[in-house]
Amino acid sequence: MGGMNMGQQPGMQSPPLGSHSHKQRTRRAYAPFNPEVGDAPSQGGPAGFPPVNNPQMPGFPGAGQQGYPSPAGPPITGPQTFVPGAQAPTPIPGLAAPYVRSPGAAPLPAGTGQPMGQQPAPYEPQKPRIDPNQMPSPITVHTHDQENYGSAQPYSTAQRLNAPLACTEFTAVDDGNSNPRFMRMTMGNVPHTEELLKASHLPLGIIVQPLAELAPSEEPVKLIDFGEEGPIRCLRCKTYINPHMVFINGGKTFVCNMCRHENDVPDDYFCNLDMAGKRLDSEMRPELRNGTVEFVATKDFIARQPAPASFVFAIDVTWNAVQCGMVAYAAAAIKDALYSGSGLPAGVRVGIITYDRSAHFYSLSPSLDQAQMMVVPDIQDMFVPINEGFVVDPTEARHIIEPLLDALPTMFANNRTAEPVLGAVVQAAHEALRGRGGKLIAFQTALPTFGPGSLKQRDDAKLHNTDKERTLYEPQDAFYRDWAIKLVEDGISCSLYLFPSAYVDAATLSQLSTVTGGELYSYPAFEGGRDGRRLMADVRADVQRAYGGSAVLRIRTSDGLRVDEHYGNLYMRNHVDVELAGVTSDSAIGALLQYDGKLDEKQDAYFQAALLYTTSDGQRRIRVHNLAAPCTTLIGNMFRSSEVDTSLNLIAKMAMSEALTSPLKGIREKLTDRCVQILSAYRRNCASGSAPGQLILPEAYKLSPLYNLALLKSPAIRGGADVPIDQRIYHMCLMRQFSVRKTMDYFYPTVAPLHMLAEGEGVADEVTGIVALPKLVRASYSLLDPAGMYMLASGGSLMLWFGRQVSPSLLQAAVGVSALEQIDTKMHSVPEVPTELNQKIRAIAGGLVPTRAGYVNVQIVRQGMDQAEVQFASLLVEDRNNDNMTYVDFVCAIHRQIQVEARPKGPSEPKWSYH
Ligand SMILES: [Zn+2]
């Protein structure tokens, strides 16, 4: 069978492997701009975009408004005013007068802004009435938070309110509650009744990232060995001993903070109490001092003998895979991950499989001179033909593994076979790793159409953007889910790297990663020159981060609360134990809380997440995270302590779960309704005295309209028929697996201006290594200076944008050429030239997307010249794009709906509809 050349530009060649040195790149001659060679705008951008060469990109004043229908709504009847919440008397940072006003403040001075009161109900295209710069901005919020927590003063987790945001660089000291990196709540104060929660419409939940990486300045988690008896636990509810348990009766009894059960203290754990009722040894015992500790697991927690983890790399070597450069880059990425940077986590062993219509296994035994290949041609009856030497210590077998990886692209250069048998490889990995646990890291280019688990092409464009589209989100048969569950049973997770040049049915294949606690990666139309560096960075990050196997997570809460639903890449056999075949420092699990009864408002509400897992070097451990949050009877406290970032993460995870049963259109409407209900509830309960025409946003939740809009625009749930189904699934998987920090990077891009860097900007701090960024620009095309240059970071990728009027001298200093036409847009990195500006730009690139590998892919975009500008513009979330409106328009639409909600209602009408 033949194949297609996937995405290779005619006349362009991927750089040869091993040519990653900057020297070689700078010696490359820059081809003059030739609109005939791949740079001309072409088809394929998101619908609704103007041609790229049109200087009126969406978002330019006037461009974004034309002909865009407004959602129906009543006229706005008062001055448009943002005010901070009643309990937050300071103005919203970054909002200039006249928009920062208190309820009941004097009318706007003439000429300082156009009040919106005179607008007719039907939307008429005209100039924006609100300066987008005066809308609540994530940049201001995050800058403010960074100033609060980035100082020398570390954050104590004993503080009761407002942990640093997920994107802030901070140092936490564990004073009895877990570091917020491990556990975050959507609100810091927990309502004492379900009624109070429902009245606010706010989500109540937790995001747990049990193995999150700590900052170098933070103390490592302490390990405690309680010997054969194991850690002290509540007899009734099995909560682990923690700083919130209270010792009474002279120290002979401890009261469980979850269920209030009074337990006897074992004799060998007894200690006298001081005058305040505190154990005299409590400062000496980490389990009584720290919110997060790790216990050595006793035999009861060991189902099978724990062993060091084994990572099996499986590379598709069919014709397509070789031709697009995937095989070469995957082999280079594996070699890089094994032998560069920090290397694999302690103890991890490695195996290698290649596959096309048959599967090839390699004996990597260190005693050999070179790797030995064994082919299993009959993939219907899969077995692993190697006993010893299939998984080996990568350091001991380096002289075998490195030459093998180097040789793979040549070995299969003339391979004409198609139809990579992923299903058989899953079976083989299961057999090889059964009994020891580990991870399958599979690189697959095509829909598996041969052998076990072969799938049909079922994508149907007619279903896209209809209510029936969701049938394509479900697996087409049970094979991959069934095998994923078998993998879970044996503690084997799966990272799946897809390289689709056509439909690969990511919905079915992604079961392998979503069920096993793994991750999905996707590189559509893979082209080595463009995507190779990203692949290498991803593989390195994937396999070098902390890893735990055969994990079970259990979240316990105070009596009166329970976890209603868990979200993330996980498997559940019952309602309480979250099974994670693999867990990494990036794994993040969401839990939505539900009420069983009423909480005692005089007590704190408690949460404990316990992760039983096997470390990469084979130690069985229980990591326990604890959090105490004050209970409240006041809705104002809930709003004040809410965290919009964490809420967005949870809401996005919930929406992805719902997408399997409800049409996306309905989900989009529900998300906006929820946003309106939350803001209406705030208005009704916390700012009822304000003028009807004022839009009042709670301080801690003021970014919720923007984030809601960003979620609506994400490829996971946006409207429009132009999102390929595999891409849709990929982005849905991202939402499921993202930590809070990654969600924020994904939803709101960072845009750093590079053309007027001040002293110190673009320079790494000598101690922390953190690169000082220039003052960031909001994500709107209208705010970009055509004489400037900007670096945009979004979801781990970078774009370098050059304005049309950028001066030759600036360009020379930045990238070493004097005209835009001379820039080689296929470089995918910032070229190295010996100037201070160039050095700073490269430092900023590294600072915006810090990766283990130390490099990322940079897409060059020249204003009005490159096709990539369509993608660039689509990331500017404040503009009209992605089948949705501008930030300003969206806030106006939300405002109208809030006014409808706020109208007095007849007695027969329900006040609120709960769901
Ligand atoms: Zn208990």
TrEMBL record:
Recorded superkingdom: Eukaryota
Record key words, sorted: Protein transport, Transport
Alphabetized InterPro entries for the sequence: ADF-H/Gelsolin-like_dom_sf, Beta-sandwich_Sec23_24, Gelsolin-like_dom, Gelsolin-like_dom_sf, Sec23/24_helical_dom, Sec23/24_helical_dom_sf, Sec23/24_trunk_dom, SEC23_SEC24_subfamily
Domain Sec23/Sec24 trunk: 306-540
Pfam families registered for this protein in UniProt: Gelsolin (PF00626), Sec23_BS (PF08033), Sec23_helical (PF04815), Sec23_trunk (PF04811), zf-Sec23_Sec24 (PF04810)
Region feature Disordered, mapped onto this chain: 1-155
GO MF, one example: SNARE binding
Domain Sec23/Sec24 helical: 644-744
Low complexity bias locations: 1-16
All residue ranges annotated as the Zinc finger Sec23/Sec24-type domain in the record: 231-269
All residue ranges annotated as the Gelsolin-like domain in the record: 773-842
Residue ranges annotated for the Sec23/Sec24 beta-sandwich domain, each copy included: 551-632
UniProt-listed PANTHER family: SEC24-RELATED PROTEIN, SECRETORY 24CD, ISOFORM C
Protein name: COPII coat Sec23p-Sfb3p heterodimer component
Naturally occurring in which organism (per UniProt): Coemansia spiralis
Gene name of the encoded protein: SFB3
